[in-house]
Design goal:
The protein is of the alpha+beta class and about 160 residues long. The chain has four helices and five strands, in the order ααααβββββ. It has helices spanning about 20, 30-45, 45-50, 65-75, and strands at about 75-85, 95-105, 110-120, 125-135, 140. Strands 1, 2, 3, 4 and 5 form a five-stranded antiparallel beta sheet that branches. It is elongated and about 60 Å long. About 25% of the residues are buried.
């Protein structure tokens, strides 16, 4: 089996980094470890892990699974950068991880910047809430003009197709 580096950019092999957390073999030891596993889950389309690693209100998950799956599968993921952590260590009950996740979706390159709040419940780190930090979205490739052929391949002008 070919060894692959973990998408979370820890520098470790996937099998020794996020995979055991995602597959449920071990629990994330810190809030940052859970954040890295969640990013890797987006890259690898492990939507159930993303949902299962969230705090649930009244045993219900508030995450939109279909939109999360679409975001995961329609995006090309370019990298995770941990900017700052506050608490979130093995002996803490809460923590903050500020990070950026860079991706391209529908021709637009975006940097998702968030200050994520984590809570430990029954010895397990869970994503509780996040505060998005505004960033600038940059178009990849040339801008499609209103009268140009639609890039979807329909043969119609962009303004009569996807540019509505």
């Amino acid at each position: 089996m070919k060894e692959t580096k973990c998408p979370c950019e820890s520098g470790k092999e996937y099998a020794e980094c996020c995979e055991p957390i995602i597959k449920g073999k071990v629990k994330a030891s810190t809030a940052e470890a859970l954040m890295r596993a969640r990013y890797t889950s987006y890259v690898n389309h492990e939507i159930n892990f993303i949902a299962d690693s969230c705090v649930k209100e009244d045993e219900e998950n508030e995450i939109d699974l279909e939109e999360t799956r679409a975001w995961s599968e329609e995006s090309t993921w370019h990298g995770l950068q941990i900017l700052r952590t506050e608490k979130g260590k093995e002996n803490d009950d809460e923590g903050i991880v500020e990070f950026t996740a860079t991706y391209t979706r529908k021709g637009l390159r975006d940097v998702h910047k968030e200050q994520a709040h984590f809570t430990k419940k029954s010895g397990e780190w869970l994503y509780d809430a996040g505060n998005l930090i505004p960033t600038t979205i940059v178009r990849e490739g040339e801008k499609v003009g209103r009268n140009d052929p639609c890039p979807c391949g329909s043969g119609k002008k962009y303004k009569k197709c996807c540019g509505k």
